[in-house]
């Protein structure tokens, strides 16, 4: 119940009841309300200066969690970069050196992607931690580009290795007949006494003396391009194209075991020793041709000879004696 207030009226010498105006009530209410609001705002500001709101706590936790995941992702990217760097070094310093290829230029490995700003969409967005997102995006994109270049390099290496293997298989690296005792080499490459004309002439191959019917082996992988029968000169002849500029020729044969167009492997029997054509005794005349030039076959007998045996074959081939045929 509201208190009733009185005042003493000197004119009437009586206590009169105080009459409160509506305007005064409103003003008093507004003043009190303003004071309450001011105190509340002050208390709220004081509270916020010392204590975090639930929303702030939630946002701070989210930021801390995002930073944690960012650091972990960044650490993983750095690990991948180190692994990739090791692969690049092995690629340049081992694989390409062994296969005779030039290392990839660092400027190619580290090249960026030109053109428009790839990260414009991120830059234009009003998002928190924009710089962290941009930095990680750029790092990941660079890693992806380097991995792509490395994968292409491995494709090249596989191709190089395949070509190198084919090239090794194309080198005439064994003797064309079995010669373990090293007694079959009868005449070497170079100027030798011709068996018919008895004058020194260029002998363009190596003669292996052997009984008629002794197996003759292909000295490298290749394709048979000639199977000829002549009554003079080379007599019965087989020629094999090994690719990479290499050809071999086998002359004065007795019988053939191959035909033109046939694929052969190193060590495969292609025929047998004979005494056909311009020949004075059963033997195999063997030639090696590199880039259309006949060269000394003895320099290629390294697959089936140890160093001492190879030296002995070189010595025997250097003796200037009489050849057994063309």
Automatic annotation (TrEMBL):
Coiled coil: 63-90
Annotated TM spans: 25-47
GO molecular function, one term: metalloendopeptidase activity
Keywords: Coiled coil, Membrane, Transmembrane, Transmembrane helix
InterPro entries, per database record: Cell_wall_metabolism_enzyme (IPR050570), Dup_hybrid_motif (IPR011055), M23ase_b-sheet_dom (IPR016047)
Residue span, M23ase beta-sheet core domain: 201-297
Highest taxon of the lineage: Bacteria
A Pfam entry, by short name: Peptidase_M23
Name used for this protein in its record: Peptidase, family M23
Organism: Fulvivirga imtechensis AK7
């Amino acid at each position: 119940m509201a208190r009733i207030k009185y005042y003493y009226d000197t004119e009437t010498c009586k206590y009169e009841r105080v009459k409160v105006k509506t305007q005064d009530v409103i003003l008093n209410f507004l003043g009190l309300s303003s004071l309450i609001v001011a105190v509340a705002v002050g208390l709220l500001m004081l509270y916020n200066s010392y204590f975090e709101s639930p929303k702030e706590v939630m946002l701070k936790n989210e930021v801390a969690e995002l930073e944690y995941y960012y650091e972990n992702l960044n650490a993983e990217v750095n690990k991948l970069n180190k692994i990739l760097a090791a692969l690049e070094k092995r690629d340049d310093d081992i694989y390409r050196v062994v296969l005779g290829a030039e290392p990839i230029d660092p400027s190619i490995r580290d090249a960026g992607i030109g053109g428009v700003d790839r990260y414009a969409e991120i830059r234009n967005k009003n998002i928190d931690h924009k710089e962290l997102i941009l930095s990680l995006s750029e790092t990941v994109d660079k890693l992806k580009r380097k991995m792509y270049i490395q994968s292409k390099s491995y494709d090249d290496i596989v191709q190089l290795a395949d070509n190198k293997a084919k090239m090794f298989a194309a080198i005439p690296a064994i003797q064309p007949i079995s010669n373990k005792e090293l007694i079959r080499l009868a005449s070497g490459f170079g100027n030798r006494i011709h068996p018919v004309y008895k004058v020194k002439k260029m002998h363009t191959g190596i003669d292996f003396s052997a009984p008629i019917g002794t197996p003759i082996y292909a000295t490298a992988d290749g394709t048979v391009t000639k199977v000829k029968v002549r009554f003079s000169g080379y007599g019965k002849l087989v020629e094999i194209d090994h690719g990479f500029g290499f050809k071999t020729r086998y002359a004065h044969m007795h019988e053939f075991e191959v035909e033109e167009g046939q694929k052969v492997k190193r060590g495969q029997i292609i025929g047998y020793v004979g005494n056909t054509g311009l020949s004075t005794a059963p033997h195999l005349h063997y030639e090696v041709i590199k880039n259309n030039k006949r060269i000394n076959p003895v320099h290629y007998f390294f697959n089936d000879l140890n160093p001492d045996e190879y030296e002995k074959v070189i010595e025997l081939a250097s003796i200037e004696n009489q050849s057994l045929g063309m």
